[in-house]
Amino acid sequence: METPEGEKFRDTIGTIDKEGKRAWVFPKKPVGKLYEYRKIVSYVLLAILVSSPFLKINGNQFLMFNVLERRFNIFGFPFWPQDLHLFVIMMLIGVVFVIFFTVAFGRIFCGWICPQTIFMEMVFRRIEYWIEGDRGKQIRLAKQDWDAEKIKKRVLKWFVFFVVSFLIANVFLAYIIGSDRLLRYIYEGPQDHISNLVSLLIFTGVFYFVFAWFREQVCIIACPYGRLQGVLLDNKSIIVAYDHKRGEREEGRSKFKKNEDREQIGKGDCIDCFQCVHVCPTNIDIRNGTQLECVNCTACIDACDHMMESVDLPKGLIRYASEDNIEKKTKFKFTPRLKGYTAVLVILTGVLVGMLFLRNDVEARILRLPGQLYEHKDNNVISNVYTFKLVNKTSKEIENVRFELLSHNGQIKVVSHDSFTVPEQGLSKGTLFIEINGSALSGDKDRVEIGVYSGDKLIETTTAAFLGPRSYK
Ligand code: SF4
Ligand code: SF4
Questions:
Q1: Which atom of ligand 1 is the closest one to the Cα of 240?
Q2: Residue 305 has pLDDT above 50, yes or no
Q3: What is the pLDDT of residue 285?
Q4: Does ligand 2 lie within 6 Å of residue 304's CB atom?
Q5: 8 Å CB contact between 62 and 175
Q6: Per-residue pLDDT reduced to its tens digit, 43-71
Q7: 329: confidence class by pLDDT, cuts 50, 70, 90
Q8: Hey, what's the torsion of the CAs at 24, 240, 113, 337, to 10 degrees?
Q9: Is the pLDDT of residue 1 over 60?
Q10: How far is the CA of 299 from the centre of ligand 1 (A)?
Q11: Residue 133: what are its φ and ψ, rounded to 5°?
């Protein structure tokens, strides 16, 4: 089916030309109130992002995602594979939160919070403006032959991009292997940690590729969140929108003419200056309506406000607004869909907080050795053999650890030692025997309760199955 004339822009994306080749985007440097706010938010978030793997709470790294050893720290809380349920709830909360925000405020996350946008627009793009100049100069440089000026500027830019990518890769690695280990590797030198150096160079290469070449295509082509916009947005979502009612009126947009009463003639307030298009980092024309490529960066709001001011028309022709707000002049409403998301969010957060408070610092697992039957010893004593695993989630050693039987009269014998130490953020494994007099058993399979003590302090309880002869029933 033929695409209607006014919708033809939807058949193409701004970063690919008619021949299907990459169309390089040269966005004009944004200037304005929102850009200044975004700079502040971005630098605060960058400071948090860079410092989080180096900050410690109770000796625990503030944020760590050690997927290799399956150890995670979130806000200083260490998570182990045993805490997978908490991790899943946190992820769910994150997803619901992002959906909630998207339904209400469109891609505000992309424009203000996403690390891709922050690094691209506030770090790499600003380096580019600093070395190559603004849009006009960048276009000229791109067309220019490879003379001394172009070589000097491009080599300097690529070198700075590489250094910044290398620094980001180091921070990224600190999130994965932990900052202590990373700093130790740096101190000891790369010769002893070649595999670490190789990972670092691979990450550097990926970041360099993304920010020096792939750029806005991450948001347009690769990011799954960007693809979700079509289903999440509705007419009530607040997005960066062009007020087409005011911008076009009956006669449409047209260039600015001095001493002309546009409203009376029926001309729209859009003076067709293309400033909103020139600042757009995804190379779209917001006047065509909501588009998947728009990351809500607000650069076009600033650009248009500046133009409106200079021709003495009211600001806000491009602004944060919903489709209904523009069409029917309605105000923001807390819709049933938003209420539903809020309720789910509150419930999940409550469950998570409860679970975090109920979570033990020590996790004990005692399991019967598979394939082993009980042993009938002298004096009617029944013995079962078990393996045990103790996980210490704290950043302190747990000393003098021993087991005691809480539910039955009997004893627990740990093979080769009576008490032991569980290292900080580590685990201890071993074998133990539980011995109970047959007369104390109620059947052929009792559930026994075991207390884990550090000195005299009970730090965890767990249960295990205990087999005995049928006749004790
Ligand atoms: S249309 Fe406006 S808000 Fe959207 S990406 Fe372009 S400049 Fe940013
Ligand atoms: S910046 Fe404003 S006035 Fe200029 S083209 Fe864009 S919408 Fe129209």
A1: 3
A2: yes
A3: 94
A4: yes
A5: no
A6: 999 999 999 999 998 788 899 988 887 77
A7: confident
A8: -130
A9: no
A10: 6
A11: 90, -175
Tokens representing residue 192 in the block: 């002893």
Residue nearest to atom 6 of ligand 2 (CA): 276
Residue bearing tokens 């595999």: 195
Comparing 305-309, 358-362, 384-388, the range with the smallest average pLDDT is: 358-362
pLDDT, averaged across the chain: 88
Q: How deeply is 94 buried, as exposed, middle or buried, from its count of CB atoms within 10 A (0-12, 13-18, 19+)?
A: exposed
Position 141 scores a pLDDT of 96
* Location of structure tokens 């850009």: 35
Residue showing tokens 């009612």: 245
Cα(279)–Cα(25) distance, integer angstroms = 10
Residue type, 165: S
Task: Decide whether any atom of ligand 1 lies within 6 Å of the 303 Cβ.
Answer: no
Give me the amino acid identity at 130. W
d(CA 284, CA 10): 10
* Residues belonging to the chain: 473
Q: Identify the bridge partners of residue 71 per DSSP, sorted by sequence position.
A: 66
Task: Quote the crossing angle between the two packed helices 336-358 and 84-105, to the nearest 10°.
Answer: 160
Reference 233, options 95, 93, 107; nearest CA is: 107
Nearest partner of 400 among 416, 422, 415, judged by Cα: 422
Tokens of 426: 């580590």
CA dist 279 and 300 (Å) reads 6
- Cα-Cα-Cα-Cα dihedral sign, residues 342, 345, 351, 353: negative
* Helices assigned H by DSSP within 134-240: 135-143, 148-177, 179-188, 194-208, 217, 224-227, 229-232
CB 64 less than 6 A from any atom of ligand 1: no
CA quadruple 299, 304, 307, 309: dihedral sign:
negative
225 vs 174: CA distance, rounded Å? 26
The CA–CA distances, whole Å, from 436 to 332, 386, 433 equal 69, 14, 10
189-242: pLDDT as tens digits: 888 889 889 999 999 999 999 999 999 999 988 888 888 877 888 888 889 999
